[in-house]
Predict the structure.
Amino acid sequence: MRFFMRRQNWSLPYFIFMLIFVVLPLVLIFIYAFQDADGNFTFDNFSKFISSPEAANTFVYSIGVAIITTVVCILLGYPAAYILSNKELCRSKVMVVLFILPMWINILVRTLATVALFDFMRLPLGEGALIFGMVYNFLPFMIYPIYNTMQKMDHSYIDAAQDLGANPINVFTKVVLPLSMPGVMSGIMMVFMPTISTFAIAELLTMNNIKLFGTTIQENINNGMWNYGAALSLIMLVIIFASELFSDGEEERASNEGGII
């Protein structure tokens, strides 16, 4: 009983969960990536990736798809988040729920619905369908963090800018945009990271004719090539980790600039 009276002990189940399902898989990926089929230490898995044009081209193509998806989500998501957070433009909370509602549905169900939509409209499945499906699936993940940041924004800065004679364009570019950048950076990471690693969406929306980096990893693991698949996973994790560090730095800089303004 005394064990449960200590608050620090309440975090023990979460610590065990993270240790088993987060830390241990990452350690296994790292170990397998530097081993061959016989368990010997080697760099051949990474050399194979560098010397394989198909894997390298798939990796570059996946980054391109992720960048296009992220940019389109910003162009569509930022105005939507701005309208939803503006009480004068959107007075109904129902609109907010409608934008967030797709996040409650499984991503595979949404993708299958997209396939059915393209089939109903007799549109071909391919690269266009892939970009459309990516944007459709991950757009709410761009809208919500921007909307959440704008909701918590200190509107006294906007009032002060308006009192000083700033026009609406200057208010947006000098006040609203810098203050909303932490939400934008969070949205970029929430869209970019899963897009670069997904494989199910590409398989369904292109009839497996277009492969992303996640598909390459899945195929190698399914074919028993655990070591090479782990090496590819480690490369992707390094890219995501580097993107996360860049995002944190940009988010901190944006917050500081917003505070100065």
Observations:
- The radius of gyration is 22 Å.
- The mean pLDDT is 85.
